[in-house]
DNA sequence: CTCATTTAGTTTTATATCAAACTATTTATC
DNA sequence: GATAAATAGTTTGATATAAAACTAAATGAG
């Protein structure tokens, strides 16, 4: 029975992480987006131009969800959308200047969150955790 | 950067677990409820009578969410609600006969899911995983 | 070249979810 | 006992989310 607790723990940790991130973003004056929007912005910080399909894969959300998420980010002025010249079906998403300004805040929030996440967790434990989780992930 | 992948892995694993459970339930003819409803039913299988507040804590969902979830289960005939005699604010939730009939299916789906989840994961690894996750959970 | 199939993204629909506000009840304080 | 504060659960409003259906465009097959 205790083994079932791992799944419960996973859910709870994920929630705590999300709450932490939202709380920190709010502290930094960003309260108009959720964690999924943040994931998109974060992805675009790493790769300046992504298609909707890229984003969908990156953040592991359904295409239709990405449409709504990105449209909100467009409305808020954080990203722009642009059709590809060669293939009219493809839409590229990129950060605006306003979006790019979030970079330092995102990096610090991310770092803070990881500090809390891994507090008292040794390097060996990190690797062990990652290894086991990968194993589990590949079981499905 | 790879350390950030743990959080991504956690999210993905949770999703895979949910999909697996829903898929198995559907195979067994249960396609009218989601995983959160399942969590409530499961909790009631272990403890025959719970208050809404108990359930909210058990499944880690907001009270208002529990109201909606339980109301759907009532509509579907899986549970009943009953006001406490002593304290008129308190509502008890219990499985109906129909709800109780799900027990064997739930147990087998749960067992199957855990089999898949822990395939190739040793007993030692299980304990290690649990230990590290608890540590992380308590960091927030 | 024509038609069938696939693909990228959007639209539509339904639902789970949270949080604030609310109602009714109980408990605490004076 | 009267009033304030706290509590249990519900209602309300907003939103993220998935999946089906759809549109337009590209690719594949004959």
Give the SSE layout.
Two copies of one chain form a homodimer.
Chain A: H1 5-27, H2 35-46, E1 49-51, H3 52-59, H4 63-75, E2 79-83, E3 91-95, H5 97-100, H6 103-117, H7 123-137
Chain A binds a DNA duplex (30 and 30 nucleotides) through α3 and α4.
Question: What is the makeup of the main sheet of chain A?
Answer: 3 strands, antiparallel
- N-to-C SSE string of chain A, H for helix and E for strand: HHEHHEEHHH
Helix content of chain A: 55-70%
The number of distinct β-strands of chain A equals 3
- Which ranges of chain A are low-confidence, i.e. pLDDT below 50, for 5 or more consecutive residues? none
Total number of distinct structural domains of chain A: 2
Strand order of the largest sheet of chain A: 1-3-2
- Give the overall shape of chain A, derived from the CA principal axes: globular
What is the percentage of strand-forming residues of chain A?
A: 5-15%
Tell me the span between the first and last alpha carbons of chain A: 21 Å
Rg over alpha carbons of chain A? 17 Å
Helix/strand structural class of chain A = mainly alpha
- Count interface residues per chain for the largest interface: A-B, 40 and 40 residues
Number of helices of chain A: 7
What's the assembly state of these chains?
A: homodimer
């Amino acid at each position: 029975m205790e083994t079932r607790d791992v799944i419960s723990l996973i859910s709870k940790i994920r929630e705590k992480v999300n709450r932490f991130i939202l709380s920190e973003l709010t502290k930094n004056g960003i309260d108009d987006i959720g964690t999924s929007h943040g994931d998109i912005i974060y992805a675009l910080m790493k790769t300046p131009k992504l298609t909707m399909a890229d984003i969908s894969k990156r953040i592991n959300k359904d295409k239709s969800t990405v449409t709504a998420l990105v449209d909100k980010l467009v409305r808020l002025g954080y990203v722009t959308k642009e059709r590809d010249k060669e293939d009219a079906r493809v839409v590229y998403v990129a950060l605006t200047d306003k979006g790019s300004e979030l970079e330092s805040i995102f990096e610090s929030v991310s770092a803070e969150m990881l500090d809390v996440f891994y507090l008292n967790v040794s390097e060996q434990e990190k690797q062990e955790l990652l290894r086991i989780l990968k194993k589990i992930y590949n079981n499905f």
